[in-house]
Amino acid sequence: ASNRNLLVLPGDGIGPEVMNEVRKIIAWMGKKRAVGFDITEDLVGGAALDKHGVPLSDDAMKTALEADAVLFGSVGGPKWDTADFSKKPERGLLRLRKEMDLFANLRPAKVFDALVDASSLKPEIVKGLDIMIIRELTSGVYFGEPRGRHVNAAGEVEAFDTQRYTAPEIRRVCAVAFELARKRKNKVLSSEKANVMHTGVLWREEATKLHKEKYSDVKLDHMYADALAMQLLRAPKEFDVIVTDNLFGDILSDEASMLTGSLGLLPSASLGAPDATGRRKALYEPIHGSAPDIAGKGLANPIAQTLSYAMMLRYSFDLGKEADLVETAVENVLKAGYRTGDLLVGKTDGVKKVGTQEMGDAIVKEL
Amino acid sequence: ASNRNLLVLPGDGIGPEVMNEVRKIIAWMGKKRAVGFDITEDLVGGAALDKHGVPLSDDAMKTALEADAVLFGSVGGPKWDTADFSKKPERGLLRLRKEMDLFANLRPAKVFDALVDASSLKPEIVKGLDIMIIRELTSGVYFGEPRGRHVNAAGEVEAFDTQRYTAPEIRRVCAVAFELARKRKNKVLSSEKANVMHTGVLWREEATKLHKEKYSDVKLDHMYADALAMQLLRAPKEFDVIVTDNLFGDILSDEASMLTGSLGLLPSASLGAPDATGRRKALYEPIHGSAPDIAGKGLANPIAQTLSYAMMLRYSFDLGKEADLVETAVENVLKAGYRTGDLLVGKTDGVKKVGTQEMGDAIVKEL
Ligand SMILES: CC(C)[C@H](C(=O)O)[C@@H](O)C(=O)O
Ligand SMILES: CC(C)[C@H](C(=O)O)[C@@H](O)C(=O)O
């Protein structure tokens, strides 16, 4: 046995297609670098709904909890849009995040030199951009109770959600940000709406306290989430590590990802706390969704899924060298001019338009 | 008496400076167009805290409720950063919004041809951009109860906020969006996180119902707030009117405003429901904040405040012609190359760097 138990959850839409390309790389790694995995595959999202009536079966949940890592595709699609709240495909993903306690979501936004022109932003604003957004992933308004709907005293239908954060929840995700910053440019920007929300006030306090206690060597700044949404467009290169809550992180990391020109490029890692042996539960997924409009057409960009696999090599299996190999192969393929449709913006002279499989093959060949 | 009761609240930071420039235009309007106002002035934010110990006095609140319109500057600054939550300068503004019941916040994001180059985005993405974001302003997580902090059952400090929306609250702001869309490009994009939040589910349902009942001639689409944060960068010109809740509106409208190149340009209107005589309570304020870093230096751009005044002429006093005059004057001054510091990005040949007063004078001269 390889001692590397991997659960693969391709999900819906383009998930299975892009995952197929990663399988080619997994095979290459097994053959050429003797990096093997014990792979289990299961359903999630709409695919699981269709088969089991729930967006994630208890069996799959159990496998995920026992796996060394989960490689996740994407979920959702028009077929399941009218599903009840508790049965939306997204609930499968949210259940994984919550029950695996994956509180730290690492979302890099990095601009490849070869793709500077694919961004909607001017090259001078984004060239060389390399920021890391750390989003809290298991609390906040995504999970806070009470939540639901009722008829209020005035006889009106009313819906409500609760944003809730405890001091330890804030501290543990900020600690991940400070630790990472030490390996990068040594600065952290913490973002909330402390001028409006009580959770924001506590967030700022705890980030400040933790910084004083343990990380005063790292530079810490604070910015309201609305101001950050602007600064990310004005001067994104001023940032290095950004830490924020679940909901702000959802929006701001999607905004940041567009600075790079395509969602089709960006991976993410969701990590739990290390156990006694240093092992962390972990799930890796592309930033992009299931893109039902192009699903099944061989048009999807497999790079984000590929780089998610590379992040897994690095963060879950300490295979930094192999991760580098994959990342360099992707960079070279982009340099060589290979482009899926999502990347065909801006200058397109000297580029080669390819589909999902050709892009996957090009990466394997480059390896 | 003019029958136009105006309350002017310059506030903190650059607020008083930019308001001074608007006073020149008000004077011009009185002299040249016989458009006069009965003006009362009062304190808000840090200025009110210093004098009255509260960020808005009951007296000022009363005057605001009786006024035909409020012209607001900006609030906040480092001096008051450590103020208690209930005494933050921002609470003055939030009290005005809530007690005047200004539920519809209109935030235009328009790109002036003369300033296409000031945007961080490529000219082809933003040239001709003209979108209107309608943000719900009196409900949601800004005001929902319960909110606060306690020690939870596990003995941890925990903070919480409540996002709450009733069906009528959603309907009335969506109605404003549909009405406005009819005078524009006849399409509305409604945004929430219905895949995660119960308030989002109700929001989508009510927008859809109202559309069916009364506005089926307008095109209605829905988009999750994170996807919208991306699309605003990818293809902003696809949008016309966007309607969303208080918190998403705060972030997304700030993001959208950066597409235009500078916050120093953008006005906003916050409107209540029309009473029996058709009169709406209203407050007009620039999108930008108090910018403490440049306050008192004569560097601030008075255009956003000036255009807020123009919006007031149009929406509160039915003086569309006079509003046009002001807007055209601003456009011409920009065409002529006048630029405050915030606009000095991108190409700067043929431009004339000016301060707050020179910009104000140039606008009056152009009038
Ligand atoms: C699919 C959805 C529930 C999810 C979220 O909102 O967290 C997605 O947008 C993401 O960012 O991973
Ligand atoms: C000053 C602050 C309370 C306010 C808000 O969050 O609404 C501001 O950001 C705005 O958008 O008007």
Strand content of chain A: 15-25%
Task: Show the largest interface.
Answer: A-B, 60 and 60 residues
Our measurement of the CA-to-CA distance between the termini of chain A, rounded to an integer number of angstroms, reads 25 Å
CATH superfamily of the largest domain in chain A: Isopropylmalate Dehydrogenase
Mean pLDDT of chain A: 95
Count of helix runs of chain A: 12
Approximate shape of chain A: globular
Oligomer: homodimer
Describe the structure.
2 copies of one chain form a homodimer. Chain A has 367 residues and is an alpha/beta fold. Chain A folds into 2 domains: 1-121 and 259-367, Isopropylmalate Dehydrogenase, CATH 3.40.718.10; 130-258, Isopropylmalate Dehydrogenase, CATH 3.40.718. Helices cover 40% and strands 22% of the residues of chain A. Chain A contains 12 helices and 14 strands. Chain A has helices at 15-33, 46-52, 58-66, 90-99, 123-126, 167-182, 198-214, 225-234, 246-258, 303-317, 320-335, 356-366; strands at 5-11, 38-41, 69-74, 104-110, 130-136, 148-151, 157-166, 187-192, 219-224, 241-244, 267-274, 280-286, 338-339, 352-353. In chain A, the strands form 3 sheets. Chain A has a 10-stranded mixed sheet with strand order 2-1-3-12-11-4-5-10-8-9, with helices on both faces. In chain A, strand 11 (267-274) and strand 12 (280-286) form a beta hairpin. In chain A, helix 1 packs parallel to helix 12, helix 6 packs across helix 7 and helix 11 crosses helix 12 (356-366). The first copy, chain A, is globular. The mean pLDDT of chain A is 95. Chains A and B meet through strand 7, helix 7, helix 8 and helix 9 of A and strand 7, helix 7, helix 8 and helix 9 of B. Strand 7 of chain A pairs antiparallel with strand 7 of chain B. Bound molecules: 3-isopropylmalic acid (IPM) (2 copies). One 3-isopropylmalic acid sits between chains A (90, 93-94, 250) and B (195-196, 226).
